[in-house]
Amino acid sequence: xxxxxxxxxxRQHVAQIWKAARCPAxxxxxxxxxxRQHVAQLFKAACCPAxxxxxxxxxxxxxxAQLCTAARCPAxxxxxxxxxxRPHVAQLFxxxxxxxxxxRKLPSHxRQHVAQLCKAAHCPAMHCxxxxxxxRHHFAQLCTAARCPAxxxxxxxxxxRQHVAQLCTAARCPAxxxxxxxxxxRQHVAQLCKVARCPALxxxxxxxxxRQHVAQLCMAARCPAxxxxxxxxxxQKHVAQLCKAAxxxxxxxCCPAVxxxxxxxxxRQHVAQLCKAARCPAxxxxxxxxxxx
Length: 293
What we know:
Elements: H1 8-20, H2 33-43, H3 58-68, H4 86-94, H5 108-118, H6 133-143, H7 158-167, H8 183-193, H9 208-218, H10 233-243, H11 265-275
């Protein structure tokens, strides 16, 4: 990522995504050159090269073109995507195993995950396009500049506040106070949540959004897709870094947030994406290790 605008937390996050995908080029502890170039192409600050048909692979050009539609997407004509949008774009590109997605849609679990997370209003900018409904919803939430105050330097709109609140615990979450959360995660949380502006992040106890978020990441036992397995090693480390706090209920044997209720379908899909039980041979049949506990 030399010469790019992605901060260190994003580099590490992208590295985790590529490692999880079992990309052969990811042998090692740092992001390989091909991944650095690929990410740099996606997130170039001045202009998105995908919108100019340059060196991105065809499937990526098409996918980005469908998501952003440069001529219509004001977000692609400014500096770069806002900080909260970057990780979501990365999630869309992670794909189960770095497969060539040319001519394909996102797998069904990803479509359902995005649709259920975003459930945005109709995106008029995407009328007459070939984007599937889930992408229109996602794009509407992230990019609709005319409606999205986040694109104009204002406060996040209510849908974004709620969405960010569900995804993040942020600095005001007591579970994060005095924990060993590393700097990259603190920066990531701060950029996503913008605590000073986000009213959804106010409260004195571990709020429901944090419990739900942690439940999504950690409640493997209740996730039908995770039967007989647990979180893979990369996810364990990520969860441990995010949740390593005495008051984090997800670190208990049973998560109070979801105890007695079923994990929502979107959370099951999310866990399935993270864990891919069948593809985690090192962890199959084992229990959540002490690090993650």
